[in-house]
Every structure is written in structure tokens, then in C-alpha cells.
Specification:
single chain, mainly alpha, f41 fragment of flagellin, N-terminal domain, 2 domains, rod-shaped
Length: about 325
């Protein structure tokens, strides 16, 4: 087969154009540090990168949830710590009131102090933060506690006689939470941030008819001291001390849950780092390799241009001769 000059030139120009396109692509990779600018250039890698980006978006969503929950639990911890300080001070006042040398006036003065502390306690459990009542359980918009005729009510229900169910507000931390209709959310797949104030202060009465609620116990103690009646003071103080222990248990539980939140946060940080590395391998070009490939291609392109100049020069001389 005879190769004419025209055929040689066409093939040369086609190859030169291909070389130029390769040079332009490598130049884009070097300047943008992206392996491809369109999914069509590498469909398989683009699909994997898309899935990785979805995973990163989910992790960011979970991490934002964790930030919100950590703030909520900081408020819980501070509030329960205040409750603990109040009940300890009340118990200290009760020790003084048991002193047999105290007069009715002195016990009445202690009763006044207890009433003030009781008011502080109510303020704490009705505390509002970020436009939500901390100890409102699943109801975050309405005042959880109110006092009627000296008795404490939680969302309109007497804490001594009412029945209270577990309350839940679930937050997704990426543990497999399911939100299908009619299917209850498992505590193992989501994090429950609802905190019922009635669980903190107690509810119901014991076999002796003494309230299990800290606020109502204080009400009874105040009445005793105002009447200078210490007959059942020892029994009520023991009851009060048992409720103090319950507050400490819940305080420790907050710390345990805070540690769990931090564990989940650390796990998400590790997952995020792994996915970012995976994203880099799928989308981001190695800069040193990109520059090296660019230089090699530039040398090849320049060499092709020189060859083309020689071809054109030879063809012109042949024509003239």
C-alpha cells in the first residue's frame, strides 16, 4: 500500500490532536487536583465517589446531632448537680432540726429556709434552655411542674397518685435507627434524650404513705417543723436521704451517658477520616504524579510538533522539485 503525503499528514494531525487533548486533560488535573471533572470520564470511580459523599453527609448529620445532645446533657448535668446541692443543704438543716435543744422558733426558722430551698428546687426542675423545658420529658413546650394546694403536679398529674409511663425523644446517632410506622424504636438503635422530671424527683408513695417525691417530702417536713413536731422527723429524714441517693444515681447515669456520647463521637470521627481518605483516592490527584505526567506529555507533544515541522518541510521541497 502506497502512503501518500496527504495520508501521512492526516494521520499525523489526528495523532497530534489526540496528544494535545491528553496534554490539556493532564493540565486540568494538575491545576484542579481533580482526577476527573465529569462523571462520564470515569463512571465507576464517580459512582463510588458519590456513595462516599453520601456517607460523609450522613456522618455530618450524626455529628450535628451529637453536638446538640452534648449541649442538652451539659444542661442536665448542671441542673442535677444543683438539685444535689439543694437536697444536701436540706439534709444538713434537718440534722440541726433534730437537735433536742432547739426551740419551736428555731425550728420555724429552719422551716422557712427549707421553703426557700424548695422554691429553688422547683425553679431548677422547671428550667428552660434553648426554648425547651429540660425536665419536661417528651413535652418540651409546656411547664412540667406546678403546685396546687401544696401538692406537686407533673403535666397536670398528681405525682403521688398518678401513673407515669416512659417518655422518649429519639435522636439518630447512626446506630441503625428505624422510623417505620407502627414499629417502636429500639433503645439499642437510637439515643433517648427525653428526661422526665418526675423520674428525677420521684413519684408515688411508700407502704407508710410517705411520698416518694422530694418536693412533697419537703412540704411535709416544713409542716412538721412549723408545728414543732419531731415525732416522725427521723423517719422522714431517712426517706429523704434515700431520695438523695436516687439523685446521685441519676447524676452518675448522666456521666455514663455522656461518656457513651463521646464514644460515638470518636467513632464517627474515625469513620469520617476513613471516608475522606477514600474520597481523596477516588477524586483527588496526586500532585507530584500529576506534574510528572504533565511534563512527560508536554515533552511528547513538543517532539510531535518538531516531527510535524520536518514532515511539512520535506513535503514542500518535494513539491518544489
Amino acid at each position: 500500500m502506497r502512503l501518500t503525503n496527504n495520508m501521512i499528514m492526516k494521520r499525523y494531525l489526528r495523532n497530534l490532536n489526540t496528544s494535545y487533548k491528553t496534554l490539556a486533560k493532564l493540565s486540568d488535573i494538575s491545576s484542579s487536583q481533580k482526577l476527573y471533572s465529569r462523571a462520564s470520564e470515569n463512571p465507576a470511580a464517580a459512582m463510588k465517589a458519590f456513595n462516599v459523599r453520601n456517607d460523609l453527609a450522613r456522618i455530618e448529620f450524626f455529628k450535628n446531632n451529637i453536638v446538640d445532645v452534648k449541649n442538652i446533657y451539659t444542661d442536665y448535668e448542671a441542673s442535677i448537680s444543683t438539685v444535689n446541692d439543694i437536697v444536701k443543704e436540706i439534709n444538713s438543716m434537718l440534722e440541726q432540726a433534730k437537735n433536742v435543744t432547739y426551740t419551736d422558733t428555731e425550728r420555724a426558722a429552719i422551716a422557712t429556709v427549707l421553703e426557700n430551698l424548695q422554691t429553688q428546687l422547683l425553679d431548677v426542675v422547671n428550667r428552660k434552655s434553648a426554648d425547651r423545658f429540660l425536665f419536661g420529658g417528651a413535652n418540651l413546650t409546656e411547664l412540667p411542674f406546678e403546685v396546687k394546694d401544696g401538692k406537686l403536679y407533673y403535666h397536670g398529674v398528681d405525682v403521688d397518685t398518678g401513673t407515669f409511663e416512659k417518655e422518649s425523644i429519639y435522636i439518630d446517632f447512626g446506630m441503625g435507627m428505624s422510623s417505620r410506622s407502627g414499629v417502636p424504636v429500639s433503645d439499642n438503635t437510637a439515643f433517648n434524650i427525653a428526661y422526665s422530671g418526675v423520674e428525677l424527683l420521684g413519684h408515688g408513695v411508700d407502704e407508710d404513705g410517705i411520698s416518694n417525691n422530694i418536693y412533697n417530702i419537703i412540704t411535709d417536713l416544713v409542716q412538721m417543723l412549723k408545728n414543732n413536731d419531731t415525732t416522725n422527723l427521723e423517719k422522714y429524714q431517712k426517706k429523704f436521704e434515700s431520695k438523695m441517693s436516687d439523685v446521685l444515681i441519676q447524676y452518675a447515669d448522666i456521666g455514663q451517658k455522656t461518656n457513651f456520647i463521646e464514644f460515638i463521637e470518636n467513632r464517627l470521627n474515625v469513620d469520617e477520616e476513613n471516608f475522606l481518605n477514600k474520597q481523596d483516592s477516588l477524586e483527588v490527584a496526586d500532585l507530584a504524579e500529576a506534574f510528572m505526567n504533565l511534563e512527560y506529555q508536554r515533552l511528547a507533544y513538543n517532539a510531535a510538533l518538531k516531527i510535524g515541522a520536518n514532515l511539512m518541510e520535506g513535503s514542500l521541497l518535494d513539491f518544489l522539485s
